[in-house]
Amino acid sequence: MTPQTAAKKHVDHIICARWVIPVRPRNLLHHHAMAVSEGRIVAIGPQEDILNAYTAAEVTTLNQHVLMPGFVNAHTHAAMTLMRGLADDLPLMTWLNEHIWPVEGRFVSPEFVRMGTELAIAEMLRGGTTTFNDMYFFPEAAALSAQDMGMRAHIGHVIIDFPTAYAANADACLQAAADLLPRLRQLPLIRQSLAPHAPYTVADAGLRGTRELAEAEQLPIHMHVHETAYEVDEALAQHGQRPLARLAALDLLNPRFLAVHMTQLDDSDLSLCRESGLHIAHCPESNLKLGSGIAPVARIRRQGIGLAIGTDGAASNNDLDMLGELRTAALLAKGISNDPTAFPAWEALEAATLGGAQAIGWGDRIGSLEIGKAADCIAISLDHPATFPVYDPVSQVAYCAGRDQITHVWVEGKIRISQGQAVDWETSALFRRAQEWVKRIRERDQNP
Amino acid sequence: MTPQTAAKKHVDHIICARWVIPVRPRNLLHHHAMAVSEGRIVAIGPQEDILNAYTAAEVTTLNQHVLMPGFVNAHTHAAMTLMRGLADDLPLMTWLNEHIWPVEGRFVSPEFVRMGTELAIAEMLRGGTTTFNDMYFFPEAAALSAQDMGMRAHIGHVIIDFPTAYAANADACLQAAADLLPRLRQLPLIRQSLAPHAPYTVADAGLRGTRELAEAEQLPIHMHVHETAYEVDEALAQHGQRPLARLAALDLLNPRFLAVHMTQLDDSDLSLCRESGLHIAHCPESNLKLGSGIAPVARIRRQGIGLAIGTDGAASNNDLDMLGELRTAALLAKGISNDPTAFPAWEALEAATLGGAQAIGWGDRIGSLEIGKAADCIAISLDHPATFPVYDPVSQVAYCAGRDQITHVWVEGKIRISQGQAVDWETSALFRRAQEWVKRIRERDQNP
């Protein structure tokens, strides 16, 4: 061993990439490399410098790729992947009353959630999502799926007034959450939140209980808010208050509150958002598909409100493709504001990564490629007819690249997708296991 | 040879697929097969029947695939692929004045058009588009690229008042078109149209000349109309007339007129569309990205007006992905009408195939899988985490499938893409040839 080599520090892995988009700082780096040890980012610098300073058990060279943080999908109902495409193009209440709710009523169980979440994870990891923020019944099943498949997840304990297969009422949901919290804290890839379903499905008592438990356990809150104009109108008729104002009066709004959808925002709502420091999860494709409304992203950004992007569940999107979702968000923000400078490529990438991490209180650990953060990252090959020529890699990722161009995905430094294929499971075997559920769901849906 | 075999009719190719979406009729067929001879569809029926009735030199079996017509991209400026991502997120006039027009002014030539169109074709064929409807300078170069690469194209002879590298004025454009028409008629995959650029760039004289030549030569007309509110307002100020009304007064509107964009449509415009029988090409992603406005698809469909879908050029989209474009169209139509039943999956697939074919007067030959039509078709594998489970293949194609799931593309029965790869060219060699152009364009853009 030469003295020079001896002086080098050893790391687990060095990734060299033609371009690195760390997201924070907002710089495009050329011919840089990242050193990773024990799942954390140790160094980022010009390839020569990194290769001179470190030796590694493994060196990955990505000459035609962008290296960037993995996507944080800020709103999912992962298990609903089992109901993807079951019933589309229907009026909202027909879709819910005649398809989604009857199937859920019949089948939802820990096993259903486990199976559906595994399918969702297979899709999400392959599409470059390394963390998802979930809200569904039987959260332990979702948490175990994520931990077992090596995906990071923020698991919401759902709270809802009406009886389901999961719990009898909001109190029972809160009790289930309190009971489960310590167990899920043992899972290293998992953090937790409380997830009151929506203002119209949780009465004040349940929301007060949510606030108390959230404060006691220092948990973020994840909730659908202002999804439709109907929701706001009904609340005004019933409570004489807009739903967000009611949540503010119940003292729920703060920087650990993530409001999902938010398609209806008047000036008073925007003030509440800004003053409370809450974050917004924008789900453009679900909102479009269900005709719910369109969140005013340009105005949200101008107010400095934290913005994340989510796909929502596969039953209402219908994919869990964050690259597609951030593109839709970037295009739609310009379209509805008649302003081609609104929500530019850099901001869309940031919302889909760091914005999501911050929205779920995980900005200390993920969402950007910075020293000390977890090596949750992806490589996107720009060697494809859809991304040629490359004048600007940031623009190519935001506006042209397809999920198929995502070649590598690492979570906490461990490779999960390599050359576009799952490393740890056979996708065909996953499908075979799911097929029995699919058959029963189809039968039930066709013979209610 | 047994008597039974002797009785079978011989065809070139039989394609067996798990699902067939012929588009017209609007039926989903299970386990069907299509027999193809000399580039034409000879028969479609249950696999057993087809295999009993025909022998073929080649049988392709697609057990997890949808077989459907190739997409018709109803509006492109293919050569602009060389400027993809050159300048994004800018105000419209900055983008045009400081980037697109200077680059075009410096470089546009038959060689530039040829190179840019080849790149566009490589992307479009791989994404399942089998026909594109183009409008750009030096149309012969685009036509030759398409014919040589085995893609079907409808080539518009651009007509514009102001001087360009291509022609001095509208008269010169019309003369160039008249001269070129007989030559391009020799190319079997090519048909032609006249393409007056827009109401605000062609004065009445040029439009009268366009109408005369179109009538004399029985050519369709392809034109940007009502792209922005600004265009309509300016026309009202200058001519006291909305642009579409002016075109109607000039007797240009009829079933062979394709109006592109049409984001601004009042009741009088919709009446003109309906009464004239013109077709509309909807380019949702370009319209969103440039903040141009949003075409009211639900109202257009309710009026029974022919609707096609186009990507526009790669400089303003930024991809040429028809699967993505039809999805954006389907989602956006619901979103802006607050109606989840608007523009359902079947209609979006139809607009992206048969709607496009009819819009360019080619509905007799392409756009659906019907006996006698050309075998312009694609296979989409649904064996992917994004399209599992398959309750409804039509919904999966419209709302979930990615362009990477398109495995096979045939134009006039000839295979162009197989297992996702181009059969006839090396994509890397294409990129290498283009790189010299890219370098010069980048230098020019950075040092104007």
UniProtKB/TrEMBL annotation, chains A, B:
The keyword Metal-binding applies. One of its GO terms (molecular function) is metal ion binding. Keywords: Hydrolase, Metal-binding, Zinc. Transmembrane segments: none annotated. It comes from the Bacteria. Residues 66-415 form the Amidohydrolase-related domain. The keyword Metal-binding applies. Belongs to the metallo-dependent hydrolases superfamily. ATZ/TRZ family. This is N-ethylammeline chlorohydrolase. It comes from Acidithiobacillus marinus.
